[in-house]
Amino acid sequence: MKADASSRIACLFERLRREGRKGFIGYITAGDPSLDRTPDVVAALERGGVDLIELGVPFSDPIADGPVIQRASERALRAGTSLRGVLGAAAEIRRRSQIPLLLFTYLNPVIRYGLENLARDAAAAGIDGVLLTDLSVEEAERHIEPLRRYNLDTVFLAAPTSTPARLRLIAQYSKGFVYLVSRTGVTGVQDSLSDSVRPLVEALRPLTSLPLAVGFGISRPEHMAAVGKVADAAVVGSAFVKVIEEHADASSLETKLESLARELKGGFAS
Amino acid sequence: MITSQPDAGGHYGPYGGRYVPETLMSPLDELEKAYYEARQDPDFQAELDRLLRDYAGRPTPLYYARRLSETLGGARIYLKREDLLHTGAHKINNCLGQVLLARRMGKKRIIAETGAGQHGVATATVCALFGMECVVYMGEEDMRRQRLNVFRMRMLGAKVVGVASGSRTLKDAISEAMRDWVTNVSDTHYLLGSALGTHPYPLMVRDFQSVIGRESLKQMLAAERRLPNAVFACVGGGSNAIGIFHAFIPEEKVKLIGVEAGGRGSALGEHAARFCGGSPGVLQGAYSYLLQDENGQVALTHSVSAGLDYALVGPEHAWLHDLGRAEYVAASDREALEAARLLSQTEGIIPALESAHAVAEAVRRAPHAKGEIFLVNVSGRGDKDMDIYRENFPELDES
Question: What is the pTM (predicted TM-score) of this model?
Answer without folding.
Answer: 0.95
